[in-house]
Structures are given as structure tokens and as C-alpha cells.
Amino acid sequence: xxQLKKTENQQINKTLPLLSIIxxxxxxxxxxxxxxxxxxxxxxxxxxxxxxxxMSTDNTLDIIKKYEKHITYWVSEPDKGIYDAMNKGxxxxxxxxxxxxxxxxxxxxxxxxSLIQNSTDSVEFDVVYGxxxxxxxxxxxxxxxxxxxxxxxxxxxxxCHQSVFIKRELLILEPFNLNFxxxxxxxxxxxxxxxxxxFQYVPLTISKIDIGGIxxxxxNTTLETIKVIHSFKPYSILILKKVPYLILHxxxxxxxxxxxxxxxxxxxxxxxx
Length: 273
Prior knowledge:
Blueprint: E1 2-4, E2 19-25, H1 32-40, E3 47-53, H2 60-66, E4 73-76, H3 82-92, E5 97-100, E6 106-107, H4 112-120, E7 127-136, E8 141-145, E9 164-167, H5 168-173, H6 184-194, E10 199-210, H7 214-217, H8 221-231, H9 243-255, H10 257-271
Parallel strand pairs: 2-3, 2-5, 3-4, 7-10
Antiparallel strand pairs: 1-4, 5-9, 6-10, 7-8, 7-9
Helix pairs in contact: 9-10
């Protein structure tokens, strides 16, 4: 296990919200540097940056060490999966708000944290979310996905976790449920919504994400999403709205991962309209 405590040269302005940005990574030597640079080069100073590494065996740790003077805390140790690692980050964070920007993903530009703090400065909201740019890196395809109104979350995820800032105190109360391996973030947001926490949409493109991640390429994503909806019993009838896409997705799964990815990209294109 390796770890780094808070650097002494970190400047904190106590009059502004402290944003905790958490990056979860394992064996991502080709993409981790881009993610780190998109965070440490933000023009907003009040950032606490935490990296949770799952015992990488490639050059990921060397890259983390290269930038460690800009990192508040990092650790490399075994975990039980991506959401377990994200829960570890929550426990380490001390900021007012938390964002998860995992390896391979980036903030849309270097102004985002400055722009978002104007929205998070209000005590009226518990969750602040925006749009994202979905990128298929192998084909260089880019799709701007506008977040949908929060009431539509009962039909499916309306934003991505890279484009949301959540009050830390909420995440302490509502950590990721490890019974869900693929879409625990969706379960978490549904729980916050049903418990009447206040969501605020901001018309910003907050993140750039690789749609080749676990929830975008896994053939079991739709099935687990249905399980999440069904876990909130009064709303389980909404599973019916998932049936047409489920059929397409399962056909793709039978044909192989290439077609699974194709149908998932089709889904995002439909969402962007």
C-alpha cells in the first residue's frame, strides 16, 4: 500500500466551497494522465484531489507519483470493485461537495470547477448536475448528451456521475450499494430522488467521458438497471418502458460485444435528440 498525505503547499480559501474530486483507477496507464491534468489544472483553487488505485500493476502508479505534489491524498490497495473504491474516496473526502472523475474521463474544460461553484454555493440544493460529451475513442465519435429533467430518472439515468456534484454529507448517508456491480450510481441517485433531496440542473457541459466504461459495454447493464428499478417497489411498473431497449440489447449480447457496443451507442444517439 502506498499513500500520500495532504501537501503543505495546498492553498485553501475558506470563503469558497471546497470541492473534493475523486478518481478511481486500476491499470489505466494510457488515460490516467489526461484525467489528472484536467483536474489539477482547473482554475479553481479550492480542490481536494483524491485518487483511489486498486493495486495497479502497469505504469499507473508512476504517473500518479509524477503529479503527487498536486494530489491531496492517494492510496493503492485492493478493493471489491469500482463502487467499493468510490466509497473509500467518500470516506476520505473532507470537501463540501464531491465529484467522481474516474480514469479515462475529464472535465470538459479548465473553467468547470469555477463555474460549478456558483451553483453549489446555494444551500437550497443537494445535487447539482449538467451535460456531458460522450466519446467513442476507437471511432473518435462524439455525442453531446444533455441531461434530462430529474423527474425522468424513474425511467433511467438522466446524467452521468462524472457530471454531478453531490453534497458530501449525503454521500456519507447514501454510499454506493455494493449489491449492484454495474449501475450502483443509478441506484444511489434514485434513492436520493425518492427521499426528496433537491436536484439542480445547470446548463453546462461538465465532463467528457469514454462510453467504453463498465456500464456502457457490459451486456448485463440493462438487466441490473431493471433490478434497481424493481428494488423501489412502487415504481417497478416502469420496467415496461425498458422492454423495447432490453430486447435490442439482448440481441446484441447474443451476437457479441461488438454489437452490444453498437446498440449502446445507438441508445446514446437517441438520448441526445
